[in-house]
Amino acid sequence: MMNSVPGFLASGISSGIKSDNSKDLGLIFSEKPATAVGVFTTNQLKAAPVILTQEKIKNGLAQAVIVNSGNANACTGKLGFQHATSVSEKVARELKIDNRLVMVSSTGIIGVPLPIERINTHMHRLVSSLSPTGLTDFSEAIMTTDTFSKTILRKASIAGKDVTLVGIAKGSGMVMPAMATLLAYFLTDLSIERSLLLELFREVIQSSFNALTIDGETSTNDTALILANGFAGNEILRGDTNELTQFKNLLKGVAEDLSRLILKDAEGSTKIVQITVKNALTREEAQKIAYKVANSVLVKTAFFGEDPNWGRIMSAIGQAGAAINPAKIAIWFNDVMVAQNSCRAGNIRDAQAILKLPEFRVTIDLQCGAACADIATTDLTIEYVKINSDYPT
Amino acid sequence: MMNSVPGFLASGISSGIKSDNSKDLGLIFSEKPATAVGVFTTNQLKAAPVILTQEKIKNGLAQAVIVNSGNANACTGKLGFQHATSVSEKVARELKIDNRLVMVSSTGIIGVPLPIERINTHMHRLVSSLSPTGLTDFSEAIMTTDTFSKTILRKASIAGKDVTLVGIAKGSGMVMPAMATLLAYFLTDLSIERSLLLELFREVIQSSFNALTIDGETSTNDTALILANGFAGNEILRGDTNELTQFKNLLKGVAEDLSRLILKDAEGSTKIVQITVKNALTREEAQKIAYKVANSVLVKTAFFGEDPNWGRIMSAIGQAGAAINPAKIAIWFNDVMVAQNSCRAGNIRDAQAILKLPEFRVTIDLQCGAACADIATTDLTIEYVKINSDYPT
Fold it and tell me: Best label site of A157, A229, A303, B138, fewest CB within 10 Å?
């Protein structure tokens, strides 16, 4: 069975929150309470389900995750919090588990009360649809403007046991994760100690989801959770061992591949561009510059126009408020140097061919230190503007 | 004579820097050295003419300003600096004035060496074209993607004398001035003490050009200069007098009207939107939030879609990294409240009509202090992406 993880069931149905009758309600259930940790949006206006889940997951255990799309339950005040709480309680009752073990997420339009009666009406069907192969339905139920669902499943042998890990994510706009991302759920049958899992999870998210930006927008609902239910039967991972490294590599691979799927589905985009800043004074300075370039609308429209306009990249670098030597900057498109000592260098014609590729790398050498940063981004297209000027309120 | 200021001559010609043979070289000349001050871009990668002019204007006097469009002379290294210096020297020789009195500006493509031989070839014609009515030609010669030239001329009676002030600006993209703006030149026949003029100029620029953003991009070439040649014959303004207030009002009016012209000509835009943040803890916090909202691509595409999507505004507020009370935010479109206590309020239908207007105001009440900020912005349109993905390198 390809899309399943031992001990986990899932489902996804349409409850009528979305007007087009596509799936909008998803559920994950672990046959026993799983070790669970999460990372969440840094947006100060956190959605009600984010606040609720952030609090509940502190216990380190989760057995169910319910997610609705089509409504973010953000900027909905006390009512929104009551709604999130009531959804959680209803799931717990249906599943006959402790309410403290239920995590809640929402994604979609901000500022509209959650249509709680539709969720309630379909709750029984959602629970009775749970199955080991339900992850596909779940991954479809959490989509908003995504054009395809995003699931990566991998297996590895760890501590003598076959371990499975699945990652499921949604997101194609309002994407510049900061400490967390969009919605992403990782399920594994590994047995692992909670604090170790949290440390590992934060580190992996940092180098995958937190290293990409589509439009510089950090949503109110970003949430990434991982549940480890121990069904693999391995001796619980407790310290910095070979087994931990094996699992870290597994998790990293899945998280990075999911990140790429999100970039590939970026609203209206035609290109994936890796922005690499090297030889910066500090990692923070490198990141500041990488994000400024990756989010510059002028740089991103130039990518769309397949124009190796390194001048716009220079201008963005100069605005980042980071320590630079203004006379020492070099820029490459892949292996073609277009600027050296902050002046034109090489043949711009060679760079033009690179800009036509669906994926390429911009390397910025600051020559003032040894730190670096790597951010993936996309182009800004006519289609992006169409999609986002058309999104109904 | 409408478009002239006593004691100032100007000209604008085509020298072949732009490939379409439109005007690309402009000159301003004052019949005697004028008191002069300037404010300049905060971009760390300042163009060669910016560095040169910033240095020269410290003397407090200027008699000529030469500006080319079609080439920014930015990221051009030592050669760029030699070019800017040589243009200045050549102008001084032609005009038979001290080289220290010549200011230089450039605007256009970044990173391409200035075609200095074209400027040299046409220098004599540029100087011999100088005339009291040449400001129109000058204003056309400094345009890049501008669709119309931007000149505001006003007169006032100050200290018993008729005083004239003209402001000329260019800019329609790469516009988020910070301490300066695009290119803007103010000429007046007033007599005024230099330090007083500098103080006044900085204050006025702060509340006009520095209070708008089109795309969050601060260019490498932003420059605003003011030349006061004293031809009005008034007794020199030296202190905080009624006359100074009168001149300040004159300057403020011209600068604000020029700012509006720039917004009206914003690349591809269909709307001007005033973002007002009030009751913030400090002015800095208010500005941070106003800029985050004004530059959010999701907010700006919603404006284009005429969608009163206050949820995107909330999400932008939450990302600004400013002190807020997440439960206390109110949002208005003009006089229609759409959110209160960070939740939906009022009737969104009423707001929809406002979004269809060519100009409207978004007011954000933070309810956590008494400071405010006011930033003008535009929508982000399909046309903006077309223009900026098409700009040739």
Answer: A157
In angstroms, rounded to a whole number, what is the distance separating the alpha carbons of residues A163 and A158?
6
Instruction: Tell me how far apart the alpha carbons of residues B136 and B126 are, in angstroms, rounded to a whole number.
Output: 14
B346 inside 8 A of chain A by CB: no
Opening angle at CA A186, ends A185 and A187, nearest 5: 120
ipTM above 0.95, yes or no: no
Of A171-180, B122-131, B142-151, B341-350, where does the model show the most confidence?
Answer: B122-131
Interface touch A389/B326, C-beta < 8 Å: no
Chain B residues with CB-CB distance to A173 below 8 A: 298
At A214, which amino acid appears?
Answer: I
Residue B349 touches chain A, beta carbons under 8 Å: no
B388, amino acid identity = N
The Cα angle at residue B162 between residues B160 and B167, in degrees rounded to 5: 135
Find out whether B122 and B11 touch, Cβ atoms under 8 Å.
no
Report how far residue B301's alpha carbon sits from residue A252's, in angstroms, rounded to the nearest whole number: 34
Q: How far apart are CA B346 and CA A53, in angstroms?
A: 30
Distance CA B58, CA A37 (A): 59
- What is the tens place of the pLDDT at every residue in B28-86? 999 999 999 888 877 778 889 999 999 999 999 999 999 999 998 988 889 999 999 99
Crossing angle of helices A242-264 and A194-207, in 10° steps, is 40
What is the distance between the alpha carbons of residues B168 and B78, in angstroms, rounded to a whole number?
Answer: 30
Asked whether the CA dihedral B181, A318, A314, A209 is positive or negative, the reply is negative
Which of B126, B105, B131 lies closest to B8 in space, CA to CA? B131
A307–B393 CB contact, under 8 Å:
yes
Read off φ and ψ for residue A21, nearest 5 degrees: 65, 15
Q: Which two tokens stand for residue B62?
A: 């200027």
Contact across the interface for A111 and B388, Cβ inside 8 Å: no
Pair B150, B56: CB distance under 8 Å? no
> Catalytic positions of A, please?
181
Q: Does A312 touch chain B (CB under 8 A)?
A: yes
Tokens 């220290």 sit on residue: B100
Instruction: Report the predicted TM-score, pTM, of the whole model to 2 decimal places.
Output: 0.79
Q: Is the distance from CB of A96 to CB of A129 less than 8 angstroms?
A: no
- Measure CB to CB from residue A311 to each of B110, B218, B341 and give the nearest one: B110
A391 residue type, one letter? Y
* A307 interfacial to chain B (CB closer than 8 Å): yes
Per-residue model confidence as pLDDT tens digits over A313-355:
988 898 888 989 988 999 999 999 999 998 889 888 889 999 9
Cβ-Cβ contacts under 8 Å for A345 (sequence gap 6 or more) = A330, A337, A338, A339
- Provide the 3-class DSSP secondary structure of residue A5: coil
Token code pair at residue A283: 């990692």
Question: Could you count the other beta carbons within 10 Å of the beta carbon of residue A171?
Answer: 31
- Cα dist from A354 to A310, A337, A362, B128, whole Å: 13, 12, 10, 47
What secondary structure does DSSP assign to A219-261, as a single string? -S--EEEEEE--TT-PPPB-SS-HHHHHHHHHHHHHHHHHHHH
In order of A273, A289, A291, A361, the CA distances from A334 in angstroms are 10, 18, 19, 5
> At B376, which helix (H) or strand (E)?
strand B371-378
Structure tokens at B23: 């005007």
B105 with B69: CB under 8 angstroms? no
Strand order in the sheet with B336-340: B343-344, B336-340, B330-333, B359-365, B272-280, B371-378
